[in-house]
């Protein structure tokens, strides 16, 4: 790869000032004005930027006196910017090439600078390796082992990152090797931070024991083992079960987000018939105030309760908490249906609010199920004289939903992509705005040949039932 666009060269050129300008800077205490040579260098950098399709940041002249930064430090900082830009654009091969040139910063003699550079290279390299289409297990191991030797203070964190990469690749044997090598590792005093990291490493060991337990259980269920083999397999399952349980119990004692470990722990307990213990773990994980707010914790508890036949009231209670945290969650459609089935009028009213809140988010704008549910709810409430409920949800959105959901451009685009989506949105737009609204009119014109009968019935209903007719 041609690396001429790395800004180190032009930076070094700019650092060469004349003796006269240096003397002026020393005597006056101020930075001298930019010379013609510097302007030419900036122009040269701009031309190189055009060639490589990147925008080089303009060098700002420092306004304060003091010790100037070294040219290689400035070059390294710009290189990091280019790497981040490439990563944001998913240009992983280009990012890897830039990172290769950035490795030279690890020869810096300053201890503080070396520590910072090592951590930057480690974090950028980990992300690139995880997403690079051509990265291999060998590349991952070589990179992390190298970084461990350079950034010894981050040894455990780098090892955890290595374990994560290997688990994503499914290489459990290599994970076992890395975890085993960390059992007796220490650096300096055994601090609290290191203790927590050790617990996290043991939790990953628990994941390995859980996976081994799952494999043994599958072999026993399939009944393809002899009596002696089956007996030894069952004994091994008990050992893996105890080790995994202890590791998971230790990690959940610390406040944090432990979703992968909780899922493994709950499956381990539930598959072993300890459903009460599994429910206790999930409730503690969801409602312990020491843990940060986590919508997934309530989703896991809801799914567990649903699997085990919990009553609708309990499911509604759990989803209500999830709704207060994440109104755009995928379970909100299910929440709306549960509320609609309830005998409580407050729940039925809330079901309409849930659908409106859901469609406030752009990720649901083209979801046919969401628009179908809203159209059905609105039609039902018009039939049962619940128009005040509709107005309560519609009035706060009356000023911005038409331009957000119901423009002529969106109508044509929705009809072209999905006819059903266009019909459902047209029904909702007509009931909220009346039959003369832009969206319904465009859909009516687009479908007057193919969906003439359906649109005619829709228009008849909308004329009698829309928010414009509500006193």
Question: What does this molecule look like?
Answer:
This protein is mainly alpha-helical. The protein is 71% helix and 0% strand. The chain is built from 24 helices and no strands. The chain has helices spanning 8-15, 19-28, 36-52, 71-88, 92-102, 111-131, 137-150, 155-169, 172-181, 192-221, 227-251, 259-271, 275-287, 295-307, 312-325, 332-341, 345-359, 368-383, 387-394, 401-405, 408-417, 419-433, 438-446, 452-464. Helix 10 packs antiparallel against helix 11 (227-251) and helix 21 runs antiparallel to helix 22 (419-433). The protein is globular. The relative contact order is 0.03. Mean pLDDT is 80; it is low at 1-39 and 45-67.
Chain-wise SSE layout:
Blueprint: H1 8-15, H2 19-28, H3 36-52, H4 71-88, H5 92-102, H6 111-131, H7 137-150, H8 155-169, H9 172-181, H10 192-221, H11 227-251, H12 259-271, H13 275-287, H14 295-307, H15 312-325, H16 332-341, H17 345-359, H18 368-383, H19 387-394, H20 401-405, H21 408-417, H22 419-433, H23 438-446, H24 452-464
Helix pairs in contact: 1-4, 4-5, 5-6, 6-7, 7-8, 8-9, 8-10, 9-10, 10-11, 10-12, 11-12, 12-13, 13-14, 14-15, 15-16, 16-17, 17-18, 17-19, 18-22, 21-22, 21-23, 22-23, 22-24
